[in-house]
Amino acid sequence: MARVNELKAIARPEAGKGAARAVRREGRVPGVIYGDNQPPLGISLDQNELRQRILGGRFLTSIFEIEVDGAKHRVIPRDFQLDSVRDRPLHVDFMRLGKGASIRVRVPVHVRNADLAPGVKRGGTVNIVAHAVELQCPAEAIPEAIEVDLTGLEINYSKHLSDIELPANVRVVGRGDPTLVTIVPPSGYAEELKAAQEAAAAAAAAAAAPGAAAPGAAARCLSISARKSRRGTTCDATSTRGGRTSSAGPRRSW
Fold first, then answer.
1. What per-residue string of b and e applies to 31-68 under the rule 16 or more CB within 10 Å gives b?
2. pLDDT > 70: what percent of the chain?
3. How many other C-beta atoms are found inside a 10 Å radius of the C-beta of residue 24?
4. Which of 93, 124, 151, 224 could pair with 116 in a Cys bridge, judged by C-beta atoms 3.0 to 4.6 Å apart?
5. Quick check: 91 and 28 in contact, CB under 8 A?
């Protein structure tokens, strides 16, 4: 079962921009609790405590029990606004959770065992394509993260959502099989790979050619011809048959 966090709030009877600004001047953050077939409830929370909760991580996937004037509300945060300069919370929305509620949440993607990926050892870079995945699950069974294991992953290979085993009561929202993580090759990798493939193909073609000259045969023939040119002899080409090297031998010119 998911851990429930506790927050304390004060009922905020007045709504509107003017009332919200007045709440912020008091060092508090305006908010609202809605859902579960009940009327919305305006609240205000301590600014410093709420800021710590938001910046601490997993705020939008955590369950809270908010006490308002002695009454407790089981909720999950659905949205919040931060000041773009000071990172101070400006507003927060909470959704009530009824008994046995099933909700949609965006769960973050985490990577592990990157040091065990051959592609990383060869200079590749881990590229997180999808930073979060939207799931439908019971409120009590929200996964902390989607764990992607990179053990054995090579350059230009990827991990997809279908490669991840999810709990039985959790399903993916939407269709398709999105890419989560891939290993990007280092700079110049494509050119090196192409050169290696061309060299291997050339070597294979040379080895498979019938009657191909033995390695270095032509060079040896030229050397022999140079030494015997003063004696009026020439060297025939040396060929390889059945893995043995044979030569017609020198011929005397008259």
1. bbbebeeeeebbbbbbbeebbebbeeeebbbbbbebeb
2. 79
3. 17
4. 151
5. no
- Concatenate the DSSP letters of all residues of 10-57 into one string: EE----SHHHHHHHHHTTEEEEEEEETTEEEEEEEEEHHHHHHHHHTS
Answer yes or no: pTM beyond 0.70: no
CA distance 33 to 96: 7
> Is residue 161 assigned to a domain?
yes
> Tokens at residue 59, please?
């705020």
Residue 173: strand, helix, or coil: coil
Residue 39, domain extent: 4-99
Cα 33–chain centre separation:
35
Q: Are 41 and 32 in contact (CB under 8 A)?
A: yes
**Which residues make beta-bridge pairs with 157?**
none
Residue pLDDT, tens place only, 138-187: 998 899 899 999 999 999 999 999 999 998 899 999 888 999 999 998 87
Domain co-membership, 171 together with 145: yes
Phi and psi at residue 174, in whole multiples of 5°?
100, 175
Instruction: Let me know: does 205 contact 187? Beta carbons within 8 Å.
Output: no
Say if CB 181 and CB 160 are below 8 A apart.
Answer: no
Alpha-carbon distance of 65 to 6, in angstroms, equals 5
Number of residues written out for the chain: 254
Q: Would you state the structure tokens that stand for residue 57, as one six-digit string?
A: 């991580």
Q: Decide if 207 is inside a domain.
A: no
Query: Collapsing DSSP states into helix, strand and coil, what is residue 129?
Result: coil
Query: Is the CB of residue 63 less than 8 Å from the CB of residue 4?
Result: yes
Q: Is 126 in contact with 64 (CB distance < 8 Å)?
A: no
Look at residues 109, 113, 130, 129 and name the one whose alpha carbon lies nearest to residue 121.
113
